[in-house]
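Re: the multi-chain job from yesterday

Posting the exact lines I submitted so nobody has to dig through the queue logs.
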Amino acid sequence: MSTALLHVDKLYCERDDRILFEDLSFSINAGEVIQVEGQNGSGKTTLLRILSGLSNHYEGDIFWKGALLSTVQDDFRREILYFGHHPGVKAVLTPEENLHWYAAMHPSIDGKKIAMALEQVGLRGFEDSPCHTLSAGQNRRVSLARLYLTSAKLWILDEPFTAIDKKGVAQKEQLILDHAANGGSVILTTHHELAISEKVRRFNLDELAGT
Amino acid sequence: MGIIVTNESANSEGSSVLSLFGAVLKRDLMLAYRKKSDLFNPLIFFLMVATLFPLGVSPEPDFLAQIAPGVVWVAALLATLLSMESVFKSDFEDGTLEQTLLSPQPLFVIVLAKVLAHWMMSGLPLTLLAPLLAVMLFLPAEGMSGLMLSLLIGTPTLSLVGAIGAALTVGLRKGGVLISLLVLPLYIPVLIFGTSAVQAAVTGLPLAGFFALLGAILALGLVLAPLAISAALRISVSG
Amino acid sequence: MSEKKNWMPRWFYQLASPRWSYEIMGKLLPGFAIAAFLLLIAGTVWALLFAPSDYQQGNSFRIIYIHVPSALLAQSCYMMMAIAGAIGLIWKMKVADMVAKSCAPIGATMAVLALATGAIWGKPTWGSWWVWDARLTSMLILLFLYLGVIALYSAIENEAMAAKSAAVLALVGLVNIPIIKYSVDWWNTLHQPATFKLTERPAMAPEMWLPLLVMVIGFYCFFAVSLMMRTRNEILVRERRASWVKELVEKQ
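And the result, structure tokens for all chains:
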């Protein structure tokens, strides 16, 4: 039994007749930030979806705090935050309504902090505009506002900085570091050059890919 | 890990399930309210399908009165089916379905609330609109209560079963026709008991048995369909 | 569902490994094939030449020797498909998925055969090719259920997802079948006074039902043969990149 937050043991995944990764083993410890690298189609998104529990098209074992993931799913879901390709924002709802819904899905979130979170991502004044009137970047900010609300230990972020401006990226990077400093963990993919790269552990899926 | 459940937390769990149910219901109703076209299309379809029968078969009042229970029920069934695709589709497309599946909240409750919201936007208005169709099709006035009640008890089952089809096909680009193929055979018992209830009402036979049967099917659906829907959603999103 | 996947010890998975299944089915196939061939020949000859003709229907009743086995098989095949699908869902067992997938077309074919023989039988008995008889209607709905499952299989490209989705649908169908059957039976008695019923023959003479029994067993053996052949095919396709399949192909 390992004491890592998340431990992946001999993960194997194929997609459309292609082995994405094989014999992939690694751990994520508390306070760590991991960046998954690889070309397009190397399986970064698939890996993050597997780690989040969305996909179970894999062989091998994943352990959450030492227990097999499939046996502790409820605890696991309480402690992760997943940010995927789709921002998870309803176009006809306002940013505030969207976050209230997210809070309903995650009872540990304090609904009173929503206004503060929207302010942090620079959406003050847009609380009551339906999201379809906002830009793509603003929509992603609505989704990123969840980072200020959540009490999740593990953040799984798939391309969180797409369509976000420089200032926003710097701010989110700082947020990620703060989260790690507080004992949280982050696993992310990004095409941005991270300014905080010296504090990030990386691994490259291309080098791990099967023959 | 969370094995110790005190009385207090069990109580708060009960109320949190209710508030979750309420939150999901409210959100879905709000979404439907803001996209009104989704709300009216099945109703218009319902009216149109029923209009086809006098035109296509015969406008003879006696004849129409005879087929009215079946026509109204078939039209309601098809209208429900038409509205089914949208239950999970937009949630799937914008990623909120992913977030729902990743939440620690019980999926059973969420799914049930979503189906209830769907029924309130389809089955319930269809039921309320049915007397209009019944009059147009010369259904004898005695049959009206049977029609309304059978639709009221029967259409929630249609929503529950239809949602299974919707959940199975949510990830497919052309899910619409497929839902019909998957779900229509499963609708047959509701159709049989629903129309029979109306016919019994017209001829003055006792109705309680039909409503008991429709109610029993609904109860079974309430218990089992959310399980199938949840499983189907997890499978569809995993791709 | 996935919460349950670690109940069973590892050997359970190994037992269900595609390779093992492929080999064991290969060994079982000839026996079942011979049994199916002999039983079907014997049953057919017995049924057509030696069984006495019916006092009401004459020789036309002999079609039950195909109708009844195919109808039985269509029903049990659905059950098998749903159960295999459930095993695949719960224990992530690939071979069970493949068995379930192979069941669908066989069952649908059997349902078509039962419907066709029912229609042919209906002509001399009722004077029309189709009658909304309870059993025929139920069989028709069963065919629809099969077609739904097959349509779902072909609509989803990812094999693993298709198998799981179809398994859920098959299970939903399995729960529904008794309800559908009951409702259709009930509907039938409401709309038609109980007249002559297919297959529900009071006290058949042994000379009549013994060949039927032989035919039923023969059909089941034939089902086993075609199911194993289809499953073996499916295993080869799904495991085409496994080393043992490559070796197998090279040997031939």
